[in-house]
Design brief:
Pantoate_ligase_C; cytoplasm; Rossmann fold; binds pantoate; 9 strands; ATP binding; Pantothenate synthetase; six-stranded parallel beta sheet; three-stranded antiparallel beta sheet; alpha/beta
Protein backbone atom coordinates (compact mmCIF):
# COMPACT_ATOMS: atom_id res chain seq x y z
CA UNK A 1 0.00 0.00 0.00
CA UNK A 2 1.37 3.41 -0.97
CA UNK A 3 0.57 6.61 0.89
CA UNK A 4 0.56 9.69 -1.31
CA UNK A 5 0.53 13.20 0.10
CA UNK A 6 1.33 15.13 -3.07
CA UNK A 7 -0.99 15.87 -5.97
CA UNK A 8 1.95 15.89 -8.37
CA UNK A 9 3.05 12.42 -7.23
CA UNK A 10 -0.50 11.09 -7.40
CA UNK A 11 -0.95 12.36 -10.98
CA UNK A 12 2.19 10.51 -12.07
CA UNK A 13 0.93 7.30 -10.44
CA UNK A 14 -2.54 7.71 -11.95
CA UNK A 15 -0.99 7.76 -15.43
CA UNK A 16 0.43 4.29 -14.80
CA UNK A 17 -3.03 2.94 -13.92
CA UNK A 18 -4.63 3.41 -17.35
CA UNK A 19 -5.54 -0.27 -17.72
CA UNK A 20 -6.88 -0.73 -14.21
CA UNK A 21 -10.45 -0.49 -12.95
CA UNK A 22 -10.30 2.16 -10.26
CA UNK A 23 -12.51 2.05 -7.17
CA UNK A 24 -12.50 5.05 -4.85
CA UNK A 25 -13.61 5.46 -1.23
CA UNK A 26 -13.43 9.08 -0.02
CA UNK A 27 -13.32 9.48 3.77
CA UNK A 28 -12.37 11.92 6.49
CA UNK A 29 -10.49 9.15 8.32
CA UNK A 30 -11.24 7.64 11.73
CA UNK A 31 -12.18 4.49 9.87
CA UNK A 32 -14.75 2.11 11.35
CA UNK A 33 -16.63 -0.95 10.12
CA UNK A 34 -18.84 1.27 7.92
CA UNK A 35 -15.81 2.53 5.97
CA UNK A 36 -14.37 -0.99 5.93
CA UNK A 37 -17.53 -2.27 4.20
CA UNK A 38 -17.09 0.32 1.41
CA UNK A 39 -13.41 -0.55 1.02
CA UNK A 40 -14.12 -4.30 0.94
CA UNK A 41 -16.70 -3.81 -1.76
CA UNK A 42 -14.36 -1.62 -3.82
CA UNK A 43 -11.51 -4.13 -3.46
CA UNK A 44 -13.86 -6.91 -4.56
CA UNK A 45 -15.17 -5.00 -7.61
CA UNK A 46 -12.03 -3.24 -8.90
CA UNK A 47 -8.42 -4.07 -9.69
CA UNK A 48 -7.17 -0.97 -7.80
CA UNK A 49 -8.71 0.71 -4.75
CA UNK A 50 -7.87 4.21 -3.60
CA UNK A 51 -8.84 5.49 -0.17
CA UNK A 52 -8.67 9.23 0.49
CA UNK A 53 -8.33 10.63 3.99
CA UNK A 54 -9.00 14.35 4.18
CA UNK A 55 -10.85 16.20 6.94
CA UNK A 56 -12.50 18.71 4.66
CA UNK A 57 -12.80 22.06 6.49
CA UNK A 58 -15.33 23.57 4.09
CA UNK A 59 -18.07 21.13 5.06
CA UNK A 60 -17.94 22.01 8.77
CA UNK A 61 -20.14 24.92 9.74
CA UNK A 62 -19.17 24.51 13.38
CA UNK A 63 -15.52 25.19 14.27
CA UNK A 64 -15.76 22.99 17.40
CA UNK A 65 -16.99 20.06 15.35
CA UNK A 66 -14.01 20.49 12.99
CA UNK A 67 -11.41 20.87 15.73
CA UNK A 68 -12.55 17.81 17.66
CA UNK A 69 -13.04 15.59 14.60
CA UNK A 70 -11.06 12.45 15.54
CA UNK A 71 -7.76 12.03 13.71
CA UNK A 72 -6.43 8.47 13.89
CA UNK A 73 -4.10 8.17 10.91
CA UNK A 74 -1.94 5.29 12.14
CA UNK A 75 -4.95 3.11 13.00
CA UNK A 76 -6.61 4.08 9.68
CA UNK A 77 -3.54 3.02 7.72
CA UNK A 78 -3.44 -0.32 9.55
CA UNK A 79 -7.08 -0.98 8.67
CA UNK A 80 -6.54 0.03 5.04
CA UNK A 81 -3.45 -2.13 4.70
CA UNK A 82 -5.11 -5.18 6.28
CA UNK A 83 -8.05 -4.84 3.90
CA UNK A 84 -5.81 -4.63 0.83
CA UNK A 85 -6.17 -0.97 -0.20
CA UNK A 86 -3.65 -0.10 -2.93
CA UNK A 87 -3.23 3.66 -2.44
CA UNK A 88 -4.10 6.12 0.32
CA UNK A 89 -4.42 9.68 -0.92
CA UNK A 90 -3.74 12.01 2.00
CA UNK A 91 -3.74 15.63 0.85
CA UNK A 92 -3.69 18.78 2.98
CA UNK A 93 -5.98 21.79 2.87
CA UNK A 94 -3.61 24.05 0.89
CA UNK A 95 -3.35 21.39 -1.82
CA UNK A 96 -7.09 20.85 -2.04
CA UNK A 97 -7.96 24.55 -1.87
CA UNK A 98 -5.23 26.48 -3.74
CA UNK A 99 -8.01 29.02 -4.49
CA UNK A 100 -8.88 29.33 -0.77
CA UNK A 101 -12.39 28.13 -1.69
CA UNK A 102 -13.19 30.92 -4.18
CA UNK A 103 -14.71 28.29 -6.45
CA UNK A 104 -17.40 26.00 -5.14
CA UNK A 105 -20.15 23.64 -6.26
CA UNK A 106 -23.61 24.71 -5.09
CA UNK A 107 -26.86 22.83 -5.46
CA UNK A 108 -29.54 25.26 -4.46
CA UNK A 109 -32.67 23.19 -3.79
CA UNK A 110 -32.38 19.83 -1.99
CA UNK A 111 -29.09 20.81 -0.33
CA UNK A 112 -30.88 23.58 1.56
CA UNK A 113 -33.27 21.06 3.15
CA UNK A 114 -32.80 18.62 6.05
CA UNK A 115 -29.06 18.62 6.94
CA UNK A 116 -28.55 21.74 4.83
CA UNK A 117 -31.11 23.67 6.85
CA UNK A 118 -29.23 22.91 10.07
CA UNK A 119 -25.70 23.04 8.65
CA UNK A 120 -25.61 25.97 6.22
CA UNK A 121 -22.97 25.54 3.52
CA UNK A 122 -22.32 21.92 4.48
CA UNK A 123 -23.24 20.45 1.10
CA UNK A 124 -21.35 23.14 -0.84
CA UNK A 125 -18.27 21.90 1.00
CA UNK A 126 -19.08 18.24 0.41
CA UNK A 127 -19.90 18.60 -3.29
CA UNK A 128 -16.88 20.82 -3.92
CA UNK A 129 -14.39 18.46 -2.30
CA UNK A 130 -15.95 15.37 -3.85
CA UNK A 131 -15.74 16.92 -7.33
CA UNK A 132 -12.08 17.90 -6.73
CA UNK A 133 -11.32 14.36 -5.51
CA UNK A 134 -13.12 12.81 -8.48
CA UNK A 135 -11.07 15.02 -10.85
CA UNK A 136 -7.83 13.94 -9.18
CA UNK A 137 -8.51 10.25 -8.60
CA UNK A 138 -10.46 9.70 -11.85
CA UNK A 139 -12.25 6.63 -10.48
CA UNK A 140 -14.56 4.35 -12.46
CA UNK A 141 -16.62 3.61 -9.34
CA UNK A 142 -16.97 5.56 -6.09
CA UNK A 143 -18.50 4.15 -2.91
CA UNK A 144 -20.71 6.07 -0.46
CA UNK A 145 -22.67 4.95 2.61
CA UNK A 146 -26.45 5.14 2.71
CA UNK A 147 -26.21 6.48 6.26
CA UNK A 148 -25.47 9.88 4.69
CA UNK A 149 -28.41 9.49 2.36
CA UNK A 150 -28.81 13.17 1.49
CA UNK A 151 -25.11 13.39 0.65
CA UNK A 152 -25.39 10.26 -1.48
CA UNK A 153 -28.43 11.59 -3.38
CA UNK A 154 -26.75 14.94 -4.02
CA UNK A 155 -23.55 13.28 -5.25
CA UNK A 156 -25.51 10.97 -7.55
CA UNK A 157 -27.30 14.02 -8.91
CA UNK A 158 -24.08 16.04 -9.32
CA UNK A 159 -22.48 13.19 -11.26
CA UNK A 160 -25.51 13.10 -13.55
CA UNK A 161 -25.88 16.82 -14.20
CA UNK A 162 -22.13 17.46 -14.62
CA UNK A 163 -21.86 14.45 -17.00
CA UNK A 164 -19.18 12.76 -14.92
CA UNK A 165 -18.31 9.28 -16.09
CA UNK A 166 -18.31 7.73 -12.61
CA UNK A 167 -20.59 5.07 -11.21
CA UNK A 168 -21.75 5.89 -7.69
CA UNK A 169 -22.20 2.75 -5.61
CA UNK A 170 -24.51 3.13 -2.58
CA UNK A 171 -23.54 0.85 0.33
CA UNK A 172 -25.87 -0.17 3.19
CA UNK A 173 -25.59 1.49 6.59
CA UNK A 174 -23.56 -0.57 9.05
CA UNK A 175 -25.07 -0.70 12.56
CA UNK A 176 -23.83 -1.91 15.92
CA UNK A 177 -25.65 -4.70 17.77
CA UNK A 178 -28.10 -2.18 19.25
CA UNK A 179 -29.08 -0.88 15.81
CA UNK A 180 -27.22 2.43 16.10
CA UNK A 181 -25.65 3.46 12.78
CA UNK A 182 -21.85 3.54 13.03
CA UNK A 183 -20.39 7.04 12.99
CA UNK A 184 -17.08 8.61 13.98
CA UNK A 185 -19.03 10.85 16.34
CA UNK A 186 -20.48 7.93 18.39
CA UNK A 187 -17.25 7.72 20.39
CA UNK A 188 -18.17 11.02 22.06
CA UNK A 189 -21.27 9.40 23.65
CA UNK A 190 -21.09 8.38 27.30
CA UNK A 191 -22.21 4.79 28.06
CA UNK A 192 -25.53 6.14 29.30
CA UNK A 193 -26.04 8.33 26.23
CA UNK A 194 -25.08 5.47 23.91
CA UNK A 195 -27.94 3.47 25.41
CA UNK A 196 -30.28 6.35 24.74
CA UNK A 197 -28.85 6.84 21.22
CA UNK A 198 -29.56 3.21 20.39
CA UNK A 199 -33.30 3.93 20.71
CA UNK A 200 -33.18 6.52 17.91
CA UNK A 201 -33.23 4.17 14.87
CA UNK A 202 -36.19 2.08 16.06
CA UNK A 203 -38.25 5.15 16.92
CA UNK A 204 -37.38 6.87 13.63
CA UNK A 205 -38.51 3.93 11.54
CA UNK A 206 -41.69 3.24 13.52
CA UNK A 207 -44.90 3.49 11.56
CA UNK A 208 -46.21 6.47 13.54
CA UNK A 209 -47.04 10.02 12.55
CA UNK A 210 -43.99 12.28 12.31
CA UNK A 211 -45.30 14.49 15.12
CA UNK A 212 -45.61 11.45 17.40
CA UNK A 213 -42.05 10.37 16.58
CA UNK A 214 -40.73 13.86 17.30
CA UNK A 215 -42.69 13.93 20.59
CA UNK A 216 -41.38 10.53 21.66
CA UNK A 217 -37.76 11.47 20.90
CA UNK A 218 -38.09 14.81 22.71
CA UNK A 219 -39.64 13.17 25.77
CA UNK A 220 -36.69 10.80 25.97
CA UNK A 221 -34.28 13.76 26.04
CA UNK A 222 -33.18 14.03 22.41
CA UNK A 223 -33.03 17.50 20.88
CA UNK A 224 -34.72 16.91 17.54
CA UNK A 225 -33.28 18.87 14.58
CA UNK A 226 -35.71 17.26 12.15
CA UNK A 227 -37.73 14.16 11.37
CA UNK A 228 -39.07 14.44 7.84
CA UNK A 229 -40.28 12.27 4.99
CA UNK A 230 -38.64 13.28 1.75
CA UNK A 231 -38.82 11.30 -1.49
CA UNK A 232 -39.02 7.65 -0.48
CA UNK A 233 -37.03 8.12 2.72
CA UNK A 234 -37.59 9.17 6.31
CA UNK A 235 -34.70 11.34 7.49
CA UNK A 236 -33.91 12.19 11.10
CA UNK A 237 -31.29 14.17 13.00
CA UNK A 238 -31.12 14.49 16.76
CA UNK A 239 -28.66 15.71 19.34
CA UNK A 240 -27.73 14.20 22.68
CA UNK A 241 -25.75 16.86 24.48
CA UNK A 242 -23.25 17.96 21.81
CA UNK A 243 -23.32 14.71 19.80
CA UNK A 244 -25.39 14.82 16.64
CA UNK A 245 -26.85 11.61 15.19
CA UNK A 246 -28.37 11.24 11.73
CA UNK A 247 -30.15 8.28 10.22
CA UNK A 248 -32.67 7.43 7.51
CA UNK A 249 -34.95 4.61 6.46
CA UNK A 250 -37.30 3.71 3.62
CA UNK A 251 -40.72 4.89 4.65
CA UNK A 252 -43.77 2.64 4.46
CA UNK A 253 -45.99 3.37 1.49
CA UNK A 254 -49.20 3.99 3.38
CA UNK A 255 -51.54 6.58 1.84
CA UNK A 256 -50.88 8.82 4.78
CA UNK A 257 -47.12 8.88 4.34
CA UNK A 258 -47.48 9.52 0.59
CA UNK A 259 -49.49 12.65 1.34
CA UNK A 260 -46.93 13.91 3.86
CA UNK A 261 -43.88 13.25 1.70
CA UNK A 262 -42.04 16.06 0.08
CA UNK A 263 -40.40 15.61 -3.26
CA UNK A 264 -36.78 16.27 -4.12
CA UNK A 265 -35.78 16.79 -7.71
CA UNK A 266 -33.59 14.00 -9.03
O1 LIG B 1 -18.90 11.26 4.06
C1 LIG B 1 -17.79 11.79 4.29
O2 LIG B 1 -16.97 11.25 5.03
C2 LIG B 1 -17.44 13.11 3.67
O3 LIG B 1 -18.56 13.93 3.56
C3 LIG B 1 -16.73 12.98 2.30
C4 LIG B 1 -17.64 12.31 1.27
C5 LIG B 1 -15.47 12.15 2.46
C6 LIG B 1 -16.36 14.35 1.77
O4 LIG B 1 -15.48 15.02 2.62
Amino acid sequence: MQIIDSIHEWKKIRETLQNESIGFVPTMGNLHAGHASLLKRSIHENSTTILSIFVNPTQFNDANDLSRYPKTLEADLDIAKDLGVDYVFFPNTDMMYPDKYRYKVTENAFSAQLEGQHRPGHFDGVLTVVLKLFNLIKPHKAYFGEKDRQQLLLIQDMVKVLFLDIEIIPCPTIRDASGLALSSRNQFLSIENKLLASRFPAILQSNKALEEIIGQLSNLGFVVDYVEDYGQYRFGAVKIQSVRLIDNFDIPTTDDSVVRRRVYEQ
